[in-house]
Amino acid sequence: MLKERIVAADIIKQYENPIGELVQVACRFSSDINLLNGSKKINAKSIMGIMAFQLCKGMEVDIEASGEDETDAVKAMSDFLKCQR
């Protein structure tokens, strides 16, 4: 399992459809990917989970991935949430 803590950028302003695009990024990987903040833990491949997570600028998010492509998955999710394309 690989874990990285990041501070989310303003994804609402950066992306046309931030929730859908974030789920698409997560779904490119076979690893299980979760986003955590405080007591919230959601599956990053779930559009309903991402909506309920209420990502916002400045939010500290732990990205957790487990699987054969976990390194690439965490990097891609981190880049997306920090608006680093």
TrEMBL record:
CDD domains tied to this protein: PTS-HPr_like (cd00367)
InterPro entries: HPr (IPR050399), HPr-like (IPR000032), HPr-like_sf (IPR035895)
HPr domain mapped to chain residues: 1-85
PROSITE patterns attached to this UniProt entry: PTS_HPR_DOM
Alphabetical list of Pfam families matching this protein: PTS-HPr
NCBIfam families in the record: PTS_HPr_family (TIGR01003)
Protein name: HPr family phosphocarrier protein
Annotated source species: Brotonthovivens ammoniilytica
